[in-house]
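Supplementary Methods S3. Complex input for the zinc ion-bound model.
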Amino acid sequence: MRKTSLAILSLLFLASSTHAAPGAIRCGKLLDVRSGRILTDQVVLFDDAGTITAVGPAASTPLPSGVKSLDLSAATCLPGLIDVHTHLTGEPGDSGYAGLGISVPRSAVTGVKNARRTLRAGFTTVRNVGAEGFSDVALRDGINEGDVEGPRMIVSGPALGITGGHCDNNLLPADFHRKAEGVADGPWAVRAKVREVIKYGADVVKVCASGGVLSKGDQPGTPQYTLEELQAAAEEAHKLGRKIAAHAHGTQSIKDAIRAGFDSIEHSSLIDDEGIALAKQHGTYLVFDIYNDDYILSQGAKAGMLPESIEKEKKIGRLQRENFRRAFESGAKMAFGTDSGVYPHGDNARQFAKMVEWGMKPLDAIQAATVNAAELLGWAGKVGALERGYFADVIAVAGDPLADVRLLEAVKFVMKGGAVVRNDFPAR
Ligand SMILES: [Zn+2]
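Predicted complex, serialized as structure tokens:
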């Protein structure tokens, strides 16, 4: 009985909270992610469009008449987190042959579940890089229209790749004529494919430059697209106003993609000193997904990943972490991206502890998932900080995340655009 009424109450609360109205949050502590300073007793004010209008000390920030503040005085507030490399419409179990039995509509339904999970874990913005059948476009639009609970999404649609490459589907023999929809060979075919994904709703373009781990018959270190093809892709994407991300594990492909003008290198596993220097020179963001190695090695076989994929991960996982440390120490720009979907959605924040284990301070890792990620997305000024004019995307934890970054694995409060998504802090 008590349980039922509580459930009804929380449903009512959620229903009312989805209607944006002016409001305020009173944060016992607030992390200024730019300076790393923890400010005490702060108020975040936002308007009915879910945009922050003021942030300041509670004592000197008057509430507009009729606005009551939500009490998070026992919490530390920070901006909603950003993961720049997700696959919300996929699951770890979709790898290998099991994936052939999953339709595009089914993957869209999977995306609905994972969008909710990801948002509730504190990630209020994601960049989704690779989904079949434009299921990510549908998911983004459903979220934007309020049909589905989920983070703000920047989406790529299907990733471009060479015939037989990491982003083709190489599981079936020739008689099935199976080809992934992002396959394009040669500069002009690549340009046409970039135009096509943008035509159907891509906000960003994803290109598989090198081989990968969770694919059949290729090697992560091997180049796939040529420099000429990568240049065509980057030029076309930029001409049409989109950023472009390269899946690149291999040393040569990383350098080719940077030279071609890509905005970010995903995985970056086998980057060498020249690659790091090039990334710094070009201002290219490096995205190292250094958590999921643990999951692939411990759970991958059970999840149905191909034996060859597990072998590839064994060779590359540790090198990727070592190169993450070198790139960070060399001062390359880094953004937080996890490849969620390779491991279960909602565990995204587990990567923070890995980043700290491999050389970052907690603040560096948090900046990678806030201000830096926002800049990579082209959304600086909108997400990644709690400042006037930004979306009221606020999360809160019970303690100091600069002292214990693992607190981000247990986010207790999530607000997106002024609407409360979850609040596990007891009412006071
Ligand atoms: Zn990925």
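Confidence is low (pLDDT under 50) at residues 1-18. Residues 170 and 177 are 10 Å apart (CA to CA).
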